[in-house]
Design brief:
With about 190 residues, the chain is an alpha/beta fold. The chain has six helices and nine strands. The strands form two sheets. The chain has a six-stranded mixed sheet, with helices on both faces. Strands 2-1-9 form a three-stranded mixed sheet, with no helix packed on it. The chain is globular and about 50 Å long. The structure holds zinc ion.
Length: about 190
């Protein structure tokens, strides 16, 4: 699928919820991108998974690594399309580990899959996990990039959609200043 229709598809199906959210990066934001709306639709997930797989097929990844949650559903679909294995990481940012009995073998070629990128720290954490196991990250697929700075990971990155949504470091958050209660999100 062409890049533009794919971006529209993501925009159309990923609603942006309003509130006061704590992101896994520690940032606060008035906007939460609800990927759950995409991954609960198997047909849509397959379409998006196929498009991501096509962009990375030449790299011949042997494994697709995603964080448990909505990302993992999409990661599984991409792995299926690539004939690769699907592996998962879990835990809070900074202390994330591969799920027990899911392994990266030495020399294995791994595609990182991220649902939503805010700071890139989560993607960098996954890359460190792969490197620590002796694997090789061949690229990163990003469904929604909502970071305010260009993402630099040192590997090829394919982004499906860019969303311009504010996020704040906690001490500078205007919603905190306004006394609005904070809602934890899984993003
Ligand atoms: Zn806040």
């Amino acid at each position: 699928m062409e890049a533009a229709p794919l971006e529209s598809l993501v925009r159309e199906h990923a609603p942006v919820r309003r509130g006061h959210f704590l992101l896994s990066s520690g940032m606060h934001t008035p906007y939460y991108v609800e990927l759950e709306a995409i991954v609960q639709d198997p047909g849509l997930t397959a379409t998006i998974g196929r498009a991501i797989a096509e962009r990375f097929r030449e790299q011949q990844p042997q494994a697709v690594l995603a964080v448990l949650g909505p990302d993992a559903i999409l990661g599984y679909e991409v792995a299926s399309q690539l004939g690769a294995k699907a592996i998962f990481a879990d835990g809070p940012l900074g202390r994330r580990t591969l799920r027990p009995r899911f392994q990266v073998k030495p020399g294995e070629r791994v595609l990182i899959l991220m649902g939503v990128i805010v700071t890139g720290d989560s993607a960098r954490g996954l890359m460190r996990l792969v490197a620590a196991a002796g694997g090789q990250v061949t690229g990163a697929a990003v469904l929604v990039d909502r970071s305010s700075v260009p993402l630099q990971l040192g590997v090829p990155v394919e982004t499906l959609a860019v969303f311009d949504l504010e996020a704040y470091h906690a001490p500078l958050c205007p919603l905190c200043s306004a006394g609005q209660p904070l809602e934890r999100s899984m993003e």
